[in-house]
Amino acid sequence: MSFLKIGDKDREDRQKRIEHTGKYLRASRTGGVSLRAHARVSGVNVTGNTSHGVRVSTRLAKNTQVAFQNGRFVLRGRYGPDAAKLNLSKSGVSVSTKTPVGTFNWFKPGRSSFKMAGVQVRGHKAAYLQAVYAVFAMVVAVVGFILQALTLVFRAVGWGVQAIAARKERARQEREQLGLSAADVAGEGERILADHDVALEREPPRDLFAALVFTVTCLGRGQTHFDPNSVGMGRPESAAEHALAEDARVAGEQVRPWLESEGESPTPTLGVMHQLARAFASKVDETTRAEALLSLDDACLAAGPRTILQDGMIDILAESLGVDVRLEGES
Q1: Lowest-pLDDT range of 1-5, 155-159, 270-274, 289-293
Q2: By the 8 A CB rule, do 261 and 295 touch?
Q3: How many CB atoms lie within 10 A of CB 137?
Q4: What is the dihedral of CA 159, 162, 166, 167, to 10 degrees?
Q5: Which one, of 216, 318, 329, lies nearest residue 272 by Cα?
Q6: How far is CA 304 from the centre of its chain?
Q7: Please, are residues 58 and 51 in contact by the beta-carbon 8 Å criterion?
Q8: For residue 165, what pLDDT band results from cuts at 50, 70 and 90?
Q9: 58 pLDDT more than 90
Q10: Closest by CA position to 299, among listed 212, 211, 213
Q11: Which end of the chain, N or C, is surrounded by fewer C-beta atoms within 10 Å?
Q12: Dihedral through CA 283, CA 317, CA 298, CA 286, nearest 10?
């Protein structure tokens, strides 16, 4: 126990009442200094105090105590939860509520208590302080409720705006369906590669596939720098997936300069992608080409629904890779 209980906490983690309670000596702000002794004989508690005299008490029933103090009969009972505790005494019954700063007695406010920072007061002054605390707590609760309500309103408005924007964007994309084939973009891809003196036939299949991954996942979503998190590849589940993400990043550093001066038309991007796919197809077998197309399609969907550009990319890739895509049920 620390000096005067400073720093000691009660069951509610509050500073205990500042006082000294030794085996025979007690000193407090309100009670002064007194000597006390206590003994228990056959279930009866006997306490002697130089300030309050002699007190004899015993337990009559659960939470019920009877006592005689200096010849005066005392009856005390406490029943029920802290929110509405029933108090029994010789003078009658009252109801009190425990708060974070003490207890407020609804029927007899003069028996309320208030404790803060280890300083405890009782009586009507405590009742006034409890009322002030209640008003303060109510204001804080109302302000908190208003802030939460405003937060929910702003979130709802934000969700609504996002939904409207997404719907408009989808409608715009549907109006701007590409409708391009591999033949439409092949020449543009050849021109760009020739301008940059690129010979794709010298590249290994792994690097060509990584360049295709960068093209469909990054350029297909209007991005120019490969960020694994933004394209749904931020949590690789195997060493191979981690290596693919790194290869795609490196490939992006090579592919991006080819398209920097080509404007916003999708044709140059699709043309380069077509040439990458043709070079890749020339180095692998038919089964690998089909698996590559499915993998690229999955990569497009990793970050969400495909964009219109990605839809066009997958259509052209099927042609470029020489994969015959048929819907289930078609012959």
Answers
A1: 1-5
A2: no
A3: 13
A4: 60
A5: 216
A6: 22
A7: no
A8: confident
A9: no
A10: 213
A11: C
A12: -40
Q: Among 140, 115, 150, which Cα is nearest to 129's?
A: 115
- Three-state secondary structure string covering the chain: CCHHHCCCECCCCCECCCEEECCCEEEECCCEEEEEEEEEECCEEEEEECCCEEEEEEEEECCEEEEEECCEEEEEEEECCHHHEEEEECCEEEEEEEECCEEEECCCHHHCEEEECCEEEECHHHHHHHHHHHHHHHHHHHHHHHHHHHHHHHHHHHHHHHHHHHHHHHHHHHHCCCCCCHHHHHHHHHHHHHHCCCCHHHCCHHHHHHHHHHHHHCHHHCCCCCCCCCCCCCCCCCHHHHHHHHHHHHHHHHHHHHHCCCCCCHHHHHHHHHHHHHHHHCCCCHHHHHHHHHHHHHHHHCCCCCCHHHHHHHHHHHHHCCCCCCCCCCC
Q: Which of these, 265, 89, 119, lies nearest to 105 by C-alpha position?
A: 89
Q: In sequence order, which residues have a C-beta less than 8 Å from that of residue 316 and are 6 or more positions away?
A: 180, 181, 182, 185, 270, 273, 274, 277
| Per-residue tokens: 190 | 């050849």
- Euclidean distance between CA atoms 160 and 165, whole angstroms: 9
Q: Which residue has the tokens 């996002």?
A: 162
Is residue 29 within 8 Å of residue 18, measured between CB atoms? yes
pLDDT tens digit sequence for 241-258:
888 888 899 999 999 999
pLDDT band at residue 189, thresholds of 50, 70 and 90?
A: very high
Q: Are 297 and 215 in contact (CB under 8 A)?
A: no
* Structure tokens belonging to residue 15: 């500073």
